[in-house]
Amino acid sequence: MEGIGAATAPPQAPPPTRRAAAAATLRGLLALAADAVVYCFLVGLWLCNVTSAAFIAARRACGEDSPAAAIAKQLFVVALVATGLLFYFAAPLLLWRSGNGGRKTEAREEIGGGGDAKRPVAQGRRSENTGTRGRQDGVGPITAHVLIFLIMVMVLGMLMQVLAPEKESCEGRVGSMLVDVGSFLYSLMFCFIVSPNFLIQPRASRAKVKC
Questions:
Q1: Confidence class of residue 128 from pLDDT cuts 50, 70 and 90?
Q2: Where does 63-140 have alpha helices with state H?
């Protein structure tokens, strides 16, 4: 009986070799480096919006030639240049991390739902992930509509400034006010609503891959 039990026992997987362990460690380090670049880029976007809102507030409260407005403008330019340089590295990494995590999660669900009895459960999980993926992209439907409205307000203000006969005319002042209000509210929404969700996204995608 012992011989029969030993013969029918499933074969054990061989232990991972040093090369496989080194490759897994290298992949983990590359994933951490990619997340670090993405986080730096997102922090740069947050700083751009913070300094933009500070510049608009300082210019409206203290005047365009005030020291506070000049300092805020310089900080905004520095943050904008640094974020622009990071964009070329972070944008493909962010797309790769988001798509790679989603594909691996769906593949594991298909493998886990191999039987006919388990197939509805796997389909339910897939539809649930599809429904929550829109919330993990950084903005929900209400926030997206508000941001689009603010962009339209800024565009309208720019058009009024361009078509105004003079900069100090009524149309020019109203257009400048619309641009400042739209930019200020857009920056606040990005800092306190959109940016936190984007900062959570790389960590959530990595957790999906590990599941």
A1: very low
A2: 67-112, 119-136
Q: Would residue 20 count as lying in a domain? A: no
Which domain range does residue 135 map to?
Answer: 26-139+195-210
Residue whose tokens read 């900069």: 167
Percent of the chain with pLDDT over 90: 33
Number of domains making up the chain: 1
Question: Are the C-beta atoms of residues 205 and 97 closer than 8 Å to each other?
Answer: yes
Task: Find, among 102, 69, 55, 84, the residue nearest to 202 by Cα.
Answer: 102
Taking the C-alpha atoms of residue 128 and residue 149, their distance in angstroms, rounded to an integer, is: 29
Residue pLDDT, tens place only, 129-180? 444 444 445 578 888 999 999 999 999 999 998 988 887 788 889 999 999 9
Task: Please state the pTM of the whole predicted model.
Answer: 0.66
Q: Which residues contact 86 (CB under 8 A, 6 or more apart)?
A: 37, 40, 41, 44
Residue 188 lies in a domain: no
